[in-house]
Structures are given as C-alpha cells and as structure tokens.
C-alpha cells in the first residue's frame, strides 16, 4: 500500500512539473509594457543604453517584439523582447548600425527576421536583402556532387524611417526547408541551417548620395543568452559574389 501511495505522489509531482512547464512556456502573453516601463527596464538591464526616446514597438509575433530607441547620446539602438517564463523579458540591447538577423526558434521551423536601426536615414533609400548559396562541385572516391547556386533577393524601402523589421518571405523559408545538409553514403556536408546558405544585405543610396555609405557594427550590446542574432554579409553593387 505504501508503495502505491509513493508512486501516486511521484505521479502527481511529475504532472505538476509538466503543467508548470507548459504554463511558463505557452501561457498567453500579457499586454506589452508601456514606453516608460520599457525605458526603465532597458536602462536598468543595460545602463550603457541610456534610452531617451522609444521610437516604436514592432510586433514580430505573439511572443517576440522589437523596440527601437534613441539614446541620450543620439545613438540609434534596438531592444529585443521575448515572452518567457510568464513575463516579457529584454533579451538583447545594442546600438549596432548594421542590419542583423534574428533567428527565432519555433516548434514548427525557425523564423528569420532582418532587424535594423540606422543613423543614415538621410542617405539610404532602401536595403536589398539576399539569401545566397554559392555553387559548388565536390568529387570524392570517383563520385561527384554538383550543388547549384541560389540567390533570392528582396528590396525593402526604408520609408524615411531609421528602423525596421523584415521577415524572410515564405519562398525563402521553403528553399531552406528543402535544402537541408546533403548526405549520401559517401558524403555528408554539414551545416546548421541548410547546405551553406548565407544571408546578406546591401544599402541602396538615395539619388545624389555617393556610395559607399559607411556603417559600423562596433557598438555596445547586452545579451541574456536567450537570443540568436547573426551578422548577415554586406555586399556592394557589382560584387563578384552576386549574380547581377
């Protein structure tokens, strides 16, 4: 009898733990904090941000938001917010100028989002974003494998704003889904997100502005480790790595 009671108690504990996990992981997010609360939280989390003005609150999805800001020193920064453990949490704060890729883990498949807040809004008219894979030809043990090139492009207007968010199109995501690492009985080409795919970007200047436009990614940043951010490769017009 004691053994049965012990097993029942253990089952209750396990069910409780599973219930708490689902509650903290999948509970419906509460309303997003006010601008004053956002400034306070960002500055307390990362005093170097010195947030003066919240520019916008950008909805990425139900559990992810981007909040661009301007600091007291007139730096243009970004804060990344995630609903986690039943609370809105700031996952990253930075004042890099260059666009970044935010990889958002999802139960179905990862989401990839370009995010930016730049100082050069008076010089840049738009960005061209890329999904790229270079062609390759591999031979091993008298067998060959040809990997064709891929280049997907999308032009995004800034519309006189310093900041923005661009989720990759569905056809880009589909290509990444179907182009997983190549594996045969004689060759395995490893890659975290597919077979050697890279994200890229190019700034397009406004009429009368001479290129190149100087950007820097040497700004300060804070991360709590719950976020995946990547640096897409910058390209110039006429680059040998582009099929244009």
Question: Gist?
Answer:
The chain has helices spanning 2-26, 35-45, 170-178; strands at residues 51-54, 58-61, 64-71, 76-84, 87-94, 100-104, 111-117, 124-133, 136-140, 143-147, 150-157, 163-167, 198-205, 221-223, 228-230, 233-234. It is an alpha+beta fold and 244 residues long.
Net shape: globular
Q: Beta-sheet strand percentage?
A: 35-45%
What's the main sheet like? 6 strands, antiparallel
Total separate domains: 1
Average pLDDT over all residues: 83
What helical percentage do the residues reach?
A: 10-25%
> How does the helix and strand content classify structurally?
alpha+beta
Task: Tell me the total number of β-strands.
Answer: 16
Your description of this structure?
This protein is an alpha+beta fold and 244 residues long. The protein has one domain. The protein is 18% helix and 39% strand. It is built from 3 helices and 16 strands. The longest helix has 25 residues, at 2-26.
């Amino acid at each position: 009898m004691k053994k049965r009671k012990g097993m029942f108690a253990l089952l209750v504990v396990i069910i409780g733990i599973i219930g708490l996990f689902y509650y903290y992981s999948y509970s419906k997010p509460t309303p997003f904090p006010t601008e004053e609360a956002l400034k306070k939280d960002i500055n307390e989390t990362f005093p170097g941000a010195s947030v003066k003005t919240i520019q916008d609150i950008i909805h990425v999805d139900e559990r992810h938001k981007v909040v661009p800001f301007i600091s007291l020193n007139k730096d243009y920064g970004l804060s990344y917010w995630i609903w986690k453990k039943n609370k809105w949490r700031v996952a990253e704060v930075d004042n890099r100028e260059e666009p970044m890729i935010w990889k958002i883990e999802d139960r179905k498949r990862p989401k990839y989002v370009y995010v930016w807040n730049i100082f050069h809004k008076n010089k840049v008219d738009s960005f061209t974003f890329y999904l790229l894979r270079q062609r390759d030809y591999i031979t091993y043990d008298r067998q060959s494998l040809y990997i064709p090139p891929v280049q997907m492009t999308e032009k995004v207007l800034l519309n006189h704003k310093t900041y923005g968010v661009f989720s990759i199109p569905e056809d880009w995501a589909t290509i990444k889904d179907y182009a997983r690492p190549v594996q045969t009985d004689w060759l395995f080409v490893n890659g975290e997100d597919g077979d050697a795919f890279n994200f890229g970007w190019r700034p397009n200047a406004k009429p009368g502005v001479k290129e190149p436009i100087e950007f820097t990614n040497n700004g300060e940043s804070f991360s709590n480790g719950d976020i995946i951010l990547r640096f897409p490769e910058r390209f110039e017009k006429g680059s040998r790595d582009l099929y244009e």
